[in-house]
């Protein structure tokens, strides 16, 4: 009986361990420079003064606000692991007005957003606190955006793509990729897992390192909630991957 209780306690700890991060490390809203405009981000700063990698998180179509507590928890977990984590609001105020009016701006603005993310990567890499390593974590639209920014900028060290697709589908020419981790649910009805598999095959064709992980039963958007079994597993895999590629704690 004691062994059963211990096993149950261990499982509960696995599913809830990341919830303590947000209490330990809070976010601060700052502006970062890019050629198009200053970009509002929320920074979760890693403890200590040692040089560290920077990780930018790119939201999906719904933005961060719908699951802000989940994304804050996720970013705080990255900071606890020795990365400066940034929630990046890559859409401009004008973009937001067009979206509120029901306009579909993804195709028209995609290349501009990719260049903006690359401007931020160049800036972060040049900071004294940087160890020279820059990572991207993108969710859905942000995952597709991460593939584009990674292909365009050699300053991107590694990228993690949650249920994204190949940015070649929206007109970005890809001749290279950094090491990539692709995470997808096999029940995704928004971006089918076959899109993630196709991206993995493209990355392999360009002779870059890629890991493709398919989560059984998961639908679109599962990765933001790190208190679930598969959400916690995806975060653990992400942290392991980023440590392998970027150093850290």
Molecular structure report:
The protein has 249 residues and is of the alpha/beta class. The chain has one domain: Rossmann fold. It is 41% helix and 21% strand. The chain is built from eight helices and eight strands; from the N terminus they run H-H-E-E-E-H-E-H-H-E-H-E-E-H-E-H. An eight-stranded mixed β-sheet has the order 1-2-4-3-5-6-7-8, with helices on both faces. Strand 1 and strand 2 (38-44) form a beta hairpin. The longest helix is centred in the middle third of the chain and has 20 residues, at 106-125. It is globular and about 40 Å long. The model is unreliable at 1-23 (pLDDT under 50).
Shape, principal axes of CA atoms = globular
Count of the separate structural domains: 1
Name of the CATH architecture: 3-Layer(aba) Sandwich
Overall pLDDT, averaged? 90
In CATH, the topology is named Rossmann fold
Order of helices and strands: HHEEEHEHHEHEEHEH
Number of strands: 8
Q: Report the biggest beta sheet as strand number plus sense, adding barrel if it closes.
A: 8 strands, mixed
Low-confidence stretches: 1-23
CATH class: Alpha Beta
Radius of gyration: 18 Å
Structural classification = alpha/beta
Layout of helices and strands:
Blueprint: H1 2-16, H2 21-24, E1 28-33, E2 38-44, E3 52-58, H3 68-80, E4 84-88, H4 93-100, H5 106-125, E5 130-139, H6 141-152, E6 158-162, E7 180-185, H7 193-205, E8 210-215, H8 229-246
Helix pairs in contact: 5-6
